[in-house]
Design a protein that fits this description.
Elements: H1 6-16, H2 21-24, H3 28-38, H4 43-56, H5 60-65, H6 68-75, H7 82-98, H8 106-110, H9 117-128, H10 137-146, H11 156-167, H12 175-188, H13 208-212, E1 228-239, E2 242-247, E3 258-259, E4 262-264, H14 269-278, E5 283-295, E6 299-310, E7 317-318, E8 321-325, H15 326-332, H16 340-343, H17 352-361
Parallel strand pairs: 1-6
Antiparallel strand pairs: 1-2, 1-4, 2-3, 2-8, 5-6, 7-8
Helix pairs in contact: 1-12, 3-4, 3-9, 9-12, 10-12
């Protein structure tokens, strides 16, 4: 039992909680949107996305009804696009089954698409004051160090054990604050990679890892499999003022998003020109672009790029491609950040960058 951490933790949180946009106005919808965005994404990166998202889609009904391309464009640059697709599926269930109101019930939240134990715990505790734990990577790190545990925190059994321990000590009057305080400690004090600020930690008095001098050794994680490397050749194809994009398949990596045309392997300029001619295009000139790479969770793309000017043709749809004005691409079509390095050669920027570019011009 760790009941002795409750008071010092909450006292610290009262004086050190960060000012975050989703904390300014607490609602189940806002908590949920923020928690889904924060999966695999840094807080500072999420802030502007969150504010734009809830402005464009202020409630469950708006999210449920949003056209997919518009939804994915709002998410452009955040990655892991299945997160937002599942959000829309869940929103539709909430509208259809619960009349647009989030169920104030942990188990019912857990049944919604894309919501796991952590998110259900966060929404139920923060928005409804329900005494359920919300154990993410930050919390696992804090608890692992508090107990000087060398158990693998990626193990579901270890996570479940921590959840059971926290369940017993969550204060009924401050369930949401307690969960957020633990997460906050892990985010800004008990941080990883040898940077823990033990001197600032309100739980230092009972931290076994600090006592034993093993803070930097914890937590323990099972080694991940090496990412598969794929070589790809990305093409910025121009016909006058128009550029070529195409929609990816509805299943698989980056499903349903729009992309710059690309080919498997690392191709030379002559190989690229040959492939284009075989597909009925008439290249005028080709320019090599700087190499780039993009890392997904299980695969790494190593990309070679070329900008190719083409003779204009009447055929607007060749090989699954369609040619549109570059600015139209920037405004309407969600293109994943994997292509950001080459999107600049289309005179556009993607995701958060385009908003930052806009601020520079003000």
């Amino acid at each position: 039992m760790m009941e002795y951490i409750v008071k010092p933790l909450l006292s610290w949180y009262d004086g050190h909680a960060r000012v975050l946009p989703w904390r300014e106005e607490i609602s189940p919808y806002r908590v949920w949107v923020s928690e889904i965005m924060l999966q695999q994404t840094r807080v500072e990166a999420v802030k502007p996305y969150f504010e734009r998202f809830v402005k464009a889609l202020p409630d469950v009904h708006a999210l449920a009804e949003c056209p997919e391309d518009e939804l994915l464009k709002l998410w452009e640059g955040l990655g892991y696009y299945n997160r937002v697709r599942n959000m829309q599926k869940a929103a539709r269930v909430i509208v259809d089954k619960y009349d647009g109101k989030f169920p104030a019930d942990y188990k019912k939240l857990l049944e919604l698409p894309g919501i796991g134990h952590y998110t259900a715990g966060a929404v139920s505790s923060i928005a409804f004051g329900i005494c359920m734990p919300a154990v993410d990577g930050n919390v696992l790190r804090v608890l692992s160090r508090l107990q000087a545990s060398y158990d693998d925190i990626l193990s579901q059994s270890v996570k479940h054990t921590f959840e059971e321990e926290l369940q017993k000590i969550i204060p009924e009057d401050r369930a949401g604050d307690f969960n957020q305080a633990l997460i906050e400690i892990g985010a800004i004090v008990c941080v990883p990679n040898g940077k823990a600020k033990c001197g600032e930690c309100p739980l230092g008095f009972c931290c076994k890892a600090k006592e034993r001098g093993i803070v930097d050794e914890l937590p323990k994680k099972k080694a991940k499999k090496e990412r598969r490397v794929e070589n790809r050749t990305v093409l910025v194809l121009r016909e006058g003022n128009r550029v070529a994009i195409r929609k990816r398949p509805e299943k698989g990596l980056l499903a349903g998003l729009y992309e710059l045309p690309n080919l498997e392997g690392t191709l030379s300029d002559e190989e690229v020109l040959l492939r284009l001619r075989e597909r009925g295009f008439s290249p005028i000139r080709i320019l090599p672009l700087a190499p780039a790479k993009h890392i997904f969770s299980h695969v790494e793309w190593r990309m070679t790029g070329y900008a190719v000017s083409l003779e204009e043709s009447e055929d607007m749809d060749k090989d699954g491609l369609f040619f549109i004005d570059a600015r139209e691409t920037e405004e309407k079509y969600p293109i994943p950040a994997a292509f950001a390095a080459y999107a600049r050669y289309m005179d556009i920027v993607l995701g958060q960058e385009k908003y930052e570019e806009g601020r520079k011009d003000v």
